[in-house]
Write the structure tokens for this entry.
Amino acid sequence: MSVSDTHRTIDAIWRIESAKLIAVLTRIVRDIGLAEDLAHDALVIALEQWSQNGIPNNPGAWLMTTAKRRAIDLIRRNKLRDQKYSEVARNTDLYTEDDMDHNLDGEIGDDLLRLIFMTCHPVLPQEGRVALTLRLLCGLTTDEIARSFLAAEATIAQRIVRAKRTLRDRDIPFEVPAGEELSDRLSAVLEVIYLMFNEGYSATSGNQWIRPLICQEALRLGRVLAEIVPYEPEVHGLVALMEIQSSRFRTRVNSRGEPVLLMDQNRAEWDQLLIRRGLKALDRSQKLGRPFGPYSLQAAISACHAKAPTAPETDWIRIAALYEALSRVLPSPIVDLNRAVAVSMAFGPDFGLQIVDMLGNESSLKGYHLLPSVRGDLLVKLGRFDEARKEFEHAASMTRNERERELLLKRAAECNSAH
Amino acid sequence: MRFMFIVKATGYSEAGGNYNQKYTDAMIAYKKSLAGAGVLVSAEALHPSSTGIRIMYPSDSEKPEILVGPFLADQELIAEYTLIDVDSEADALNWALRMPVPTGCGEFKIEVRKLKKNLGFLRYSGTCALEADLKDQLSMLKNF
């Protein structure tokens, strides 16, 4: 194997192993910044030794042993100076590293979970959580994160430094929250994962390969989480949602890089394996026997589209019911507008319009251009072109997005010629 | 959110000199602590206004008038700026108050201003996904 081959292989190993290394090291040294440094030290040693002697049979265990030894050396050096560290050292298994595989599932899984709860801790601002999670749990470099978010590398680097410092200064414990705190903290973790996924999924510009990378990492992290907390329905719900959305990845954008709407996508090209995985995850969520939360509901809606052989065969009655349920657990104008359109598809535009008109009285929706825009579409369906034109013009006056405004004015003009 | 600390020029800075070694050292340490806390975006010092050029557009003319420095010190000239990215206004003020000040050099002025645009890199959220779903549904509504 050439040196560059070895380096590439080590990169791949690092991507897989780094989160586990950092998680276990954080348990030992109680500081994620220090844990990351120690894990990197182990990587540097690996690069030197493996280039000469070849890659060992179990590279993950090798890295873990090397990193743990360095952690324990560090603790010993600090022993005289710091009583707290020496206590940690005493409580750490020093030489059980060799039967790593033995406790891979249980103990390391627990450490990973603690690490996720730490990087998604509510003391950190949302962006700090995302950057730190991508860095420590997904093993992405600062440069990769920066390119994915079209941000300056220095900005991301500073976010990460700040997040680590906040965790240290606030003395955030390395633990899985218990009792009532667990569900709140878990939803913060799911939010970070979904944010990462959306960031990659919604983007149509930017680097062609790095965007899907973020989606993949979010999906992978979701799957890992589903294995370590299998009793939480929303974890499976989120995984299901991401699997099903990912199944349409190839068909979402055409060869010119322009977005393709669901209706025009070639369903034969949807990834059936991902759809099956998604449906299975949704099933796991359902089998836990609790009412569906927002992720499971959105996954169930997405599943309706995935299961329809052609667009006209979509089960709109089920989708309308799912949006109704979603509007209860996740009250939001955008959910209600989706519900109105689904109801129109299922029962006719009259019923959809009734929902939109009820929304129109809510002051929170004033200035939201999608409200008149959807109303316009429903009025066109009912042949009430004059009213529809007014709605499109109204919507056009509310949006700040130039392209959207043009589109809405075009719709308004079409209403004139429809007479 | 981003904030700019604008250090106003003084007679000393306009004369092109450094205040004193103690201040310079304190400023280096301050910037290090900003970077260490992960809040520093950029920090730059400007040459005195004697190297500056002003482009003036008189109110009744579209033709620019070029003025060369130095400019009058009472016009709130800028000597340097530091751009930071923090989570709250209180944090920004806290950092601004820790900025070193040269002693024995007369009045010294630091202005704290909030930048209009957030540095935030998370432009999309769950709402964005739901809006995309709405677009998909609307396209079907139009066609069936």
Notes: Residues 236-296 of chain A form one domain. The two ends of chain A are 73 Å apart (CA to CA). Residues 93-105, 204-210 of chain A have pLDDT under 50 and may be disordered. Chain A touches chain B through 51 residues (CB under 8 Å).
